[in-house]
Amino acid sequence: MQQSAWKDPRVLVAVWAVLCGASLVATLVLEASPAPAPAPASREPGGPPGAECAAYVAEAGRQPAEAGREGREGGVLLFPRPGVGGENCRDAVRAHVAGGR
C-alpha cells in the first residue's frame, strides 16, 4: 500500500515554508505601498452647516410647531441622515436638539 504524500513530514514542512514565505512577501508589499489619500472633508468639523443640513434641521424645527397647531402632542423623532449632499449633519442636529432643551 502506498503512503499519502501529505503524511510525509518533509512535504508538510515544505508547504509550511512556502506559505510563510508567501505571507512575508505579501506583508512587505502591503507595507511598501502608499496609504490612500484621505477623502476631502466637505466642511470643517464644528463649522456652520451646509445649506442641505440647515434645511433638514429647519424642517425638523417646523414639525413640532405644526403638531401644536393641529392639537397633537408629542415630539419629533429626528435621525441625522448620513451623507446629506455629501455632508454629515450629525453636529448640526445635535446642536439643534441641545439648543431646544
From TrEMBL:
Q: In its UniProt entry, what is this protein called?
A: Secreted protein
Q: Which species?
A: Streptomyces fragilis
